[in-house]
Structures are given as structure tokens and as C-alpha cells.
């Protein structure tokens, strides 16, 4: 495990050994098997992996928004400015949400409340975290809609979500998230549910706003192309663990984990045209209901040897700032 | 919107016409000669013929129907056979107790039922939720004439906290009026509280798992704001619907409750009228309550638009 000093300079969020379980009728799903990572001030951190690898659970665990009845964070720390969020009271946690850490979600069609105007929903975030009056908050909402480049913000502020397109709703979600100038924005697959042309616009918007406001961003996606365009650093998750962590350039130049390599090969390459069939990673993601012995990727891994099936590899540096959880990283990089 | 209201009003007229035909036929299709039934066993042929003439029963049925409708539209609901007084006068005398009981019951049922449902949904499996499950089973299955007498026994006869039965008009003082209405209101409300609470709970549970609730939480909204601001309005349409349905059942429930608690309202008037075969009263009460019910439903359909901006007519 990574063992950094508590408040290292420039570190905004310091997650340590975060462990979250889902409790079913008869079984426990270990959705997060103790992950550690940091988000530095002003950086954009990409979190990549297949569906079910624990990306969204990580985000929800940080904000303590997991479904109460079925999920619980059973271990670890989430240090934000040095304070462990997991130890805060519900009231203190509410002050963090929306004000210091904001989040945008995958599906803008369902993430806005259908019975209130978009302006009112943005104004609500402002009013929760300040003593602004309704009219001041509504003016702020209009200003935010202008910031996310929605045309006619003075009119749109009075629109209901169903009167807006998907792209516009996601812009409104971003406006809501940024209304209180958060220090960290968690974006959970913010473009996945949108049309390709709209995706590019939303990505550019998030990158632009990040530059302008200096907000740190945790960008959750399954799309390595998005990571390349938006992030400085990236963590790759598999089966509830971090398998690789690196600067974006290093990751693309020299992936040190066989899973990351597999992910990269399955990204369509425009230069090669359509003839080539995309290689896929053989096998399926392991069930997290039973404890996994050895490396969780071993059954699907072309590099797997005996030790991989017996001992769980820990994250170790292959070079400064680039770590992988693989017994054979050196061979993997060379391959 | 205006066009919709107009269309609904037109269809209301059609519905009322059909209801009117059924109510009209009630008297004519009852076994035996209505005039003979009205006159009683010992009446002579001449008396029966006189009554038949007086009621216009010798005319063709459509003529009789149209005359009945025309009279009602002119505000003439006929004369009670038994009391010999205008039906409208008898009804208006009995209106206050029934309205008092109905309105208090609806207020109690909606406030308690909705709050109960929200709290149960907020903590599923918690104490309130389990209490609701037990209470609603009871509320549904225990009829007013059982719960009513239980309430009377414990809160009136044993403890003397509340009056046993009867009604005090509102002019005689708000206090006595209210005190006399507590037990009947509670007895009548139980079933509606159970009904409204169950629907509220189900509707809230569905809404609470929506994505926008998570968005609200991510904004830092309090539990109170989440439940009452974000969730309740979204859960409102089904809740409003059952409140409308409750109104329909209320009419039946009022008859029983007024009998149990000896309240001189419309319910008792109807029961007495049925015993006396006082057809003009029965018909008038039926047509008026049907009209009221149709109107309540129209109001509720229009109220949907206030709750959900996606509903537009």
C-alpha cells in the first residue's frame, strides 16, 4: 500500500485503503478491496476501468452517497484537506457535498428533478451553502448557465428539465455542480449517455472550466480516448482494485499492467480503418462475492505464471510516479 | 387547458346523464307498482290511482325522465313522500353534520396518512414502517361499526373523555362541535389513513431511488429537503389519485359512521329514506353525491398540472 505523509503539499484528496462492501441476502460483494490514491490540487485524475470495476463506487464512497441499506464503507480513510470524511457527522458531510466536493452523473436525463425548473435546482445548491436570497441565487443560476454556454440563459433558467436536450441538461448539471466553486469535481462518466458530437462539446467545456476555475477533477470513464484528452494522471481499476497508476503519457507509452495493455488494444484506431477486428480481453470479470486468491486478472492474463495465481500483487513503482500491481510488470512493459 | 376543461365539462354532462337514467330507473324498475309501494298495504285502489296521477306515473317513461331532469335543473328535487316537505330543504338541514364529518376526516386522513407514508418510506424496515404494516392491516379490515364502538367504549364510556354520540351544530360553539366530532372522525379515518399511507409509502420509495435524489444529496440537501422538497412533489400524482378515490368511498363510510355515532346527517337521511321507500330523497342524494364525485375528480385531474410540469392538457 502507498504510505505517504498525511498532508503532503498539493494533495487535496487522499484516499487510503478504501474498502466498500455491498451486502446481499446471503453474500457480501467486495466492491472496493482497499484502494489508495490521491488527487492533487488543480489536476485532473482519470479513473478508468470496465463496468463493475468499482469506479462509481469509489466516487460514491468518497461523498458517502452509497445506498444506505445495501452498501457500506467498511475500512479506510478519505482525507480531504487532512480531515477524514468518513469520520464526519452527517451534518458536517452535507456541508462538504456540493460546496467543497461536487459531482456530476452519467445520465443527465434522469439526474435532474423533473418537477422543478433548472434554475431553481441550481439556485438550491447556492442557497444550501450560503445565505443568499432566492433572487440572488436565481441570478447566480443564470450566470452559471451562461458560464456553461447555454444560449438564452435568462429564458432557460425558467425551463423544466424535460424542455431541454440531453446535452443541455448535462451543461445544467455542470452549472449546478460548479455553482458553489467546489475544490473537487467528481465527474462520473459525464459523456457516456450523450451523442458523440455532444460528448466532445461537454468534454471541452469541462476542460475549459477546469482551467478557468482551478478546480481539481476526478474524471471517471471507461474510455481511454477521453482520458488522453482530459487527464494529467490516471488510475486503472480492475475488480475493485487499482492495477496501475501513472502520468497519462507514461501510461500510453509504456503500460505496465497486462489489463491496461488489453484495454488499449481494444480502443479503435482511426488510422487502421475498419478492416481490423478489435481484439478483446478474453474471459470475464471475476465475481467479487468470493475472496480472490492471487491476482484477480490472472485467469484472463496472457502473462500469468504460478505466483500470479497464488499471491496478490501489490502496487509497486516501475519508475517514479508510475506504479503497477503486477508480478511481471517489467516483462509486460517490454512486450 | 381551457379547451380541456370544456371537454371535461361536456363529458361530465354525459356521465351525469347516464347516472341520471340509472337513478331514474331505480324507482320504475323496483318490483311492484311504485304507487302501491308508496301508498302502503292497506291503501285502496283510488288512493293508489291518485298517487300515480300525482307522480305522473301514467305518462311514458321518457316524458317522466325529462320532466324529472327539468325539475332538478330548476332546483326542484321533488317532495319527500314521508315527510311531505321539499327534498332540498331536508338535505340542506342535514348537510352541515355530514360536511363537517367528511372534511375533518379528509384533513385527518391526508395529513396523518401522507406523513405516516413518508416516514415509513424514509426508513424502510424501521419502527414506523413496521407499525404501518400492522396498522394498515387493521385499518383495512376493521369496519367502522367495530372500531367506532371500541372507541366509544374506551374514550367515552370508560374514561368519559369524550361524548358518546350525537352532534352539536357549529353555531352552538366550535368547542362542543369539535369534541363531538373527534370519535366519529377518528373511526372513519382509520381505513383512509391506512390506504393513503400505503400508497404514499410505495410512491415515495419509488421516487427515493431515482437518480435525481442522489443529485440532491450530492448538492448537500438535508433529509428534510430531500423528503419534502424533492421526493414528495414527485410522489404526488399517485397520492392525489388515491385521495380522489377516497372521496368516493367516503360517501359510503359516512352512512355507517353517522349511524354508529347517531349523527343527523345525509347518511342517516338516506338510511331512513330507504326504510321508508322515500324515493325522491334517495334519488336526489344519489344524483347530488355522484355530481360531487365527478367534480372532485375533475379538480384532481386539474391539480396534477400544478404538481407535475410534464402533465399538460
From TrEMBL, chain A:
Protein name per Swiss-Prot or TrEMBL: Peptide ABC transporter ATP-binding protein
Assigned keywords, A-Z: ATP-binding, Cell membrane, Membrane, Nucleotide-binding, Transport
SMART domains (alphabetical): AAA
PANTHER family per UniProt: DIPEPTIDE TRANSPORT ATP-BINDING PROTEIN DPPD (PTHR43297:SF2), OLIGOPEPTIDE TRANSPORT ATP-BINDING PROTEIN APPD (PTHR43297)
Superkingdom field: Bacteria
One BP term from GO: transmembrane transport
Cross-referenced NCBIfam families: oligo_HPY
Membrane topology: Peripheral membrane protein
Organism of provenance: Phyllobacterium sophorae
CDD domains, alphabetized: ABC_NikE_OppD_transporters
Primary location: membrane
Subcellular location as annotated: Cell inner membrane
Family: Belongs to the ABC transporter superfamily.
Keyword Metal-binding part of the UniProt annotation: no
From TrEMBL, chain B:
InterPro entries: BPD_transp_1_N (IPR045621), MetI-like (IPR000515), MetI-like_sf (IPR035906)
Domain spans labelled ABC transmembrane type-1: 95-304
Annotated compartments: Cell membrane
Gene3D superfamilies recorded: MetI-like
Membrane topology of the entry: Multi-pass membrane protein
GO cellular component: plasma membrane
Cross-referenced SUPFAM superfamilies: MetI-like (SSF161098)
Keywords, in A-Z order: Cell membrane, Membrane, Transmembrane, Transmembrane helix, Transport
Residue ranges crossing the lipid bilayer per the database entry: 9-27, 99-119, 131-157, 177-197, 235-261, 281-307
Source domain of life: Bacteria
Alphabetized GO MF terms: dipeptide transmembrane transporter activity
Family from the record: Belongs to the binding-protein-dependent transport system permease family.
UniProt-recorded name of the protein: Peptide ABC transporter
Organism field: Phyllobacterium sophorae
Amino acid at each position: 500500500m502507498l504510505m505517504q505523509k498525511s498532508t503532503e503539499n498539493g494533495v487535496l484528496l487522499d484516499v487510503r485503503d478504501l474498502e466498500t462492501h455491498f451486502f446481499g441476502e446471503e453474500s457480501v460483494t467486495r466492491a472496493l478491496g482497499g484502494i489508495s490514491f490521491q488527487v492533487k490540487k488543480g489536476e485532473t485524475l482519470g479513473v478508468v476501468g470496465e463496468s463493475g470495476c468499482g469506479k462509481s463506487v469509489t466516487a460514491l464512497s468518497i461523498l458517502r452517497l452509497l445506498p444506505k441499506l445495501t452498501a457500506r464503507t467498511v475500512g479506510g480513510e478519505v482525507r480531504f484537506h487532512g480531515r477524514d470524511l468518513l469520520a464526519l457527522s452527517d451534518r458536517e458531510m452535507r456541508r462538504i457535498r456540493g460546496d467543497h466536493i461536487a459531482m456530476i452523473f452519467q445520465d443527465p436525463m434522469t439526474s435532474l428533478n423533473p418537477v422543478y425548473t433548472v434554475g431553481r435546482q441550481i439556485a438550491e445548491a447556492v442557497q444550501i451553502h450560503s445565505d443568499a436570497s432566492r433572487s440572488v441565487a436565481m441570478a447566480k443560476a443564470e450566470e452559471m448557465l451562461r458560464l456553461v454556454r447555454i444560449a438564452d440563459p435568462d429564458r432557460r433558467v425558467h425551463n423544466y428539465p424535460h424542455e431541454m436536450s440531453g446535452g443541455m441538461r448535462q451543461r445544467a448539471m455542470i452549472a449546478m455542480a460548479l455553482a458553489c466553486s467546489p475544490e473537487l469535481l467528481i465527474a462520473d462518466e459525464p459523456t457516456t449517455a450523450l451523442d458523440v458530437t455532444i460528448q466532445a462539446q461537454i468534454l471541452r467545456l469541462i476542460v475549459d472550466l477546469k482551467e478557468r476555475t482551478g478546480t481539481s477533477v476526478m474524471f471517471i470513464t471507461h474510455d481511454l480516448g477521453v482520458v488522453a484528452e482530459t487527464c494529467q494522471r490516471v488510475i486503472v481499476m480492475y475488480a475493485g482494485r487499482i492495477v496501475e497508476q501513472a502520468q497519462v503519457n507514461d501510461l500510453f507509452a509504456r503500460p505496465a499492467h497486462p489489463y491496461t495493455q488489453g484495454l488499449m488494444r481494444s480502443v479503435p484506431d482511426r488510422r487502421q480503418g475498419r478492416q481490423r477486428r478489435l481484439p478483446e480481453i478474453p474471459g470475464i470479470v471475476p465475481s467479487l462475492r468470493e475472496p480472490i486468491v492471487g491476482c484477480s486478472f490472472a485467469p484472463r492474463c496472457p502473462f500469468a505464471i504460478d505466483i500470479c495465481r497464488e499471491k496478490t500483487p501489490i502496487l509497486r513503482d516501475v519508475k517514479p510516479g508510475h506504479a503497477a500491481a503486477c508480478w511481471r510488470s517489467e516483462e509486460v512493459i517490454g512486450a | 387547458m381551457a379547451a380541456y376543461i370544456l371537454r371535461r365539462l361536456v363529458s361530465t354532462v354525459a356521465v351525469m346523464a347516464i347516472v341520471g337514467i340509472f337513478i331514474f330507473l331505480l324507482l320504475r324498475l323496483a318490483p311492484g307498482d311504485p304507487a302501491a309501494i308508496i301508498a302502503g298495504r292497506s291503501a285502496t285502489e283510488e288512493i293508489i290511482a291518485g298517487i300515480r296521477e300525482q307522480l305522473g306515473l301514467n305518462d311514458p317513461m321518457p316524458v317522466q325522465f325529462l320532466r324529472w331532469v327539468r325539475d332538478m335543473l330548476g332546483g326542484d328535487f321533488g317532495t319527500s313522500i314521508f315527510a311531505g316537505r321539499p327534498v332540498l330543504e331536508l338535505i340542506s338541514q342535514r348537510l352541515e353534520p355530514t360536511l363537517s364529518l367528511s372534511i375533518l376526516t379528509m384533513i385527518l386522513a391526508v395529513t396523518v396518512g401522507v406523513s405516516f407514508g413518508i416516514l415509513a418510506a424514509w426508513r424502510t424496515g424501521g419502527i414506523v414502517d413496521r407499525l404501518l404494516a400492522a396498522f394498515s392491516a387493521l385499518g383495512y379490515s376493521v369496519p367502522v361499526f367495530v372500531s367506532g364502538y371500541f372507541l366509544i367504549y374506551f374514550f367515552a364510556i370508560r374514561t368519559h373523555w369524550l361524548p358518546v354520540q350525537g352532534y352539536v351544530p357549529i353555531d352552538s360553539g366550535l368547542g362542543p362541535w369539535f369534541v363531538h366530532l373527534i370519535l366519529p372522525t377518528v373511526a372513519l379515518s382509520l381505513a383512509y389513513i391506512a390506504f393513503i399511507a400505503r400508497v404514499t409509502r410505495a410512491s415515495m420509495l419509488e421516487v427515493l431511488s431515482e437518480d435525481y435524489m442522489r443529485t440532491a444529496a450530492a448538492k448537500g440537501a438535508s433529509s428534510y429537503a430531500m423528503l419534502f422538497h424533492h421526493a414528495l412533489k414527485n410522489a404526488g400524482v399517485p397520492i392525489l389519485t388515491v385521495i380522489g378515490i377516497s372521496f368516493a368511498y367516503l360517501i359510503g363510510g359516512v352512512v355507517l359512521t353517522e349511524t354508529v355515532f347517531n349523527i343527523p346527517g345525509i347518511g342517516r337521511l338516506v338510511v331512513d329514506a330507504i326504510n321508508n321507500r322515500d324515493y325522491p330523497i334517495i334519488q336526489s342524494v344519489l344524483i347530488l353525491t355522484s355530481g360531487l364525485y365527478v367534480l372532485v375528480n375533475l379538480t384532481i385531474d386539474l391539480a396534477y398540472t400544478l404538481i407535475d410540469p410534464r402533465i399538460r392538457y
